[in-house]
Amino acid sequence: MSSTNETDELSSGVGGIEDDRGRNSTLVFRAGALWLGIPSHYVEQLHAPPQMTPMPLAPDYVSGLAIFRGEVVPLLDIERFLKLEEPEEKLRESTSRGRSSTFKRVAVVFADGMHVGIMCSEVRGIVSVEPPADSGVAVARGRRLERIAAFEVSTKDGILVVVDVPKLLEEARVKP
Questions:
Q1: Is this prediction's pTM over 0.85?
Q2: pLDDT at residue number 102
């Protein structure tokens, strides 16, 4: 991490779940109106927004390519991928190409041989999240999110959906 602000942001915690970089540590971020979590062992880097190179023929959820530590990485706009409604103020700030310009961080994840940058509009922190005894999903039901959700937990800020990263990357993979 390059700045104190980034470190402070990562240790802020989310609604009633204590900061912990232990066994069940999870990076928590907002996507639309939802809180999503990525198990931290998949997260290799967390960066400020990079300079992007557009990919004209890619699906709308692939915002472009960026270079992280010398490697070219595709950028996944998770809100577009999950077809989540964007908050009204975010829509007003969209660029002319229809891409959101308000994301604050990119979480570079690695799973199944793939590096992907996940665009996050608000990163809440790294917290310990214990999977519930019943791993069912209720909030994600009937959405694309249901196919990539590992489990949900309730917090004082609402429901946190923890994502199965290999499933997410497979679902988002651009197929010829």
A1: no
A2: 53
